User: Fold this.
Amino acid sequence: MADAFRTEKDPLGPKQVAADALYGVQTLRARENFPISELRPLWPFVVAQVWIKKAAALTHKETGRLDARLADAIVQAADEVLAGQHRDQFVVDPYQAGAGTSHNMNVNEVLANRANELLGGERGTYSPVHPNDHVNMAQSTNDTIPTNIRLAALSQLDALTSAFEALRDALAAKGREFDHIVKAGRTHLQDAMPIRLGQEFTAYAGSIERGVRRVREAADYLRDLGIGGSAVGTGVTVEKEYPALMNKHLRAISGLELRIGNDRIQLMQSMGDAAGFSAAMRVLAIDLSKIASDLRIMVMGPRTGIDEIKLPAVQPGSSIMPGKINPSIPEMVNQVCFQVMGLDTTVAIAAEHGQLELNVMMPVIAFNVLLSMRILTNAARSFTERCVVGIEANEDMCAYWVERSAALATALMPHIGYAKAAELSKQSVKEGVLVRDMVKRDKLLPADEIDDVLDLRKMTEIGIPGGKHGMVAGG
Assistant:
C-alpha cells in the first residue's frame, strides 16, 4: 500500500519508515545496521531514558527555555511509555554503535512523534516537537546514557536485594532447624572433622548477607549523577540551573535517592562505578553458586551418594530412567551464576576500553549489568521458593557418615599424639572399622573417657576434645 510508509530524512538522506512506527529514520538505520542478537533493549534501560527525557522537559519548562505546551506534550508522551504503552517501539539491538546514540535517538523519536500526535500533528513531521531540538534539549547521548545506567540499575536494586534477603532468611531458618544434626565435615572432598548441618546453613546465610551488603555499598556510588555534562562533561549548551533541577525532577519521577555529581567530566570518562557494581554482583554470584554446588553434593544419591539432605522434587529428572529426580533448581542457579560471571568480565573489559572523554562501550555495559540483575533476582527467588524452604535433612545418613569419618582420629591427637592418631586413621580405613571401635579395641583411652573425647556434638564447638584430659604423655 502506498500509505504503508512515510518518508523521513536525516543528515544521510531520505528513508522510508513504516507509517505506523512511532520511531523514526535514525532508529530505522540502527535496526538495519545492527541485526545482531534479535534482542530488544531491557525495559529498565528504556524506562530510565524516558525518565531523563521527562525530567528534562520539566526542567526546561521550569526555566522557560522550552515552551510549556511542547514540554507538556513530551511529558504526556513519556507518561504513556512509563505506563507500559508503546513498548514495541523500542527496537534497537543491545549490540549497537558506541555510547548508545541509537537508543537515545529511538527514545527521542518515539516521544517526539507521540507528542506531535497529542498536539494534533502527524508522525514523521517532527513539528512542532523535534527529537533533537526539544526532546534532547541540553542533552547528549554522552551524559544521558551514563545517567541511564545508574538510574536503571538503582531502579532494580530493591528487587535484587529483597530476593537475596529472602534467600538469606530461608537459609538462616534451615540453620536453626538443622542445628541439632551432626554430620561429617569435608575438606578437599575428603573426611574432615564433624560439623552441624545447621552450622553449614547458617554460614550460607552469612555469605549471602555479606554479598548483599557489598552490592548495596557498590550501588551507593551509582547515586552520583553526571547529567548536565552534555558532550564532553563540560556542560556546553546547558543552563547552570539544569543539573540541580534535573536531580530534583529525577528524584521525584523515579523515587530514587540521587545526588548531583561533583565532577561531571569524571562521571562521563569513567565506567568504574558501574564496573564496581557489576563486580559486587559477581562476588554474590560466586557465593550463590558455591551454595548451590554444595547442595548438589549433599543430595547426591540417594543410594550411591552421601544423601545427607532431601531437596523438593520439582520435575522428573530423566527421559529414560524412571523415578529419577535431579537437583534441578541448584543446577539452574549454577548456570545463572556462570552467566553473571561472564557478563561481569564483559563489563570489566568494556569499562577499561573508554578513551579520553567518553566510554563508547556503554551499551554492552548497560545490557550486561541489567541482565545480571534480572537473572540473579529471578534465580534467587526460585532457589528460595522452590528449593531452600523445602529442604529436609536425612538425619540417619548424617549420623551414618559422621561415625565413619576417618577424621575423628583428630580428636584423639591431644591425648595420643599426631603420629599415633594418623596411624589409627589409616588403619580405620584399611580395616573398615570405626575409629570409636578401634579406640575401644586397642584400649587407647580409659573406657570412661572415650565417649567424652569422641563426643561428636562437642567436636562442632571450639575446645579440646576431652577437656582437661587432653594432654599427650610427656607433653
Notes: The chain has three domains: 2-137, 143-396, 405-469.
